[in-house]
User: Fold this.
Amino acid sequence: MQLEELKHLLSNHMASEDTLQEALKAIEQIEDEIEVLSFKNKRLTNDKRITSRFLSKTVLDLENANKDLSSSNQQLNRYVHIAAHDLKAPLRTIEGFASLLNKSMIHSASQSQSDYLQYIRMSCKTMGEMLTDILEYSSSSGGKLNMETVEITDLVHDCVNLLQHDIQKTNTTINFSIPTVKIDCDPIKIKQVFLNLISNAIKFTAKVRSPIIDVNSFKEERLVQFSVKDNGIGIPTEHQPKIFEQFNRVHNSYEGTGMGLAICKATVERHGGNIWLDSMPDKGTTFYFTLKQ
Assistant:
C-alpha cells in the first residue's frame, strides 16, 4: 500500500483530528527517512560501482605485474643456469693445468710452490661444487616440474640405498615410520630433499657420536608432514632464522657450500609445501616439511 493511499484512509476513518495529525506527521517522517535512505542507497550504489572498477583495475595490474615478475624470474633463472654452466669449462681448464703443472714439478717444486698448487686445486674443487649447487638451486626454484604419482616409501628407500656407503662408514642407524601414501610430486626433486636432509643428519652427527636418524610422517587432511630427526650437534638458536638462505654455513669446519637447505626450501615451496626446523645445540635437529597429497 502506498503512503498516499494510507493518508487517504486515515483521513476518512480517523475520528480525532489530533490523532489524524499525529498519524500524518509520522507518515511524513517516514517519507523523509525513505528519501534519505534512497539518497544513501544511490550513493552506495555509485561507490560500489567505482570500487568495483578500481578493484578490477587493481587485479588486472597485479596480474600483469605477476606475469612480468614471472617472466623476469624465468629469464634470471636461465641466465644463472647458463652462467654457472659456462663457468665450469674455464674452471676445469684451470684445474687441469694446475694438475699438469703439479706433475711436471713433482721433483723440482719447493714446498711453497706445492702448497700454492694445492690451494689452486682445492679452490677449483670448491668453486665447482658451488657452481653445481647453483645449477641445482636454479633448477629447484624455476623451470617445469615433472609431476608423477609416487609411493613415498619407495622414494625414501631409494635415498637410503644411495647413501649406503656413508651409512655403513659412519655406523648410522636409520629408523622409519612412514605410512603407505602416494604423493603427486616431481620425484627427482623430492628425492633430492630427502637426500640432503638425511646426508646432513649423518654429516653433522658422525663426528660426535654414532648417528641415529628417524624418518617419520603422518597425514593431516590433504597434507602429509615429514620429519627427519638426528642426534647431532644441533643448530645455535641465533643461526636458525637464516638456515635456509643460500650459501649459509653455520659450521665452517664441515664440508659443503651451504646451498643444500636452500635447495630443499625452494623445492618444497614449489610443491606448495612448507619447511621448518626444531633444534637444540648438542641435542640434535629435526627438519619438518609438508607436501600436498
User: Anything to note?
Assistant: The longest helix spans residues 17-104. DSSP finds seven helices and seven strands in the chain.
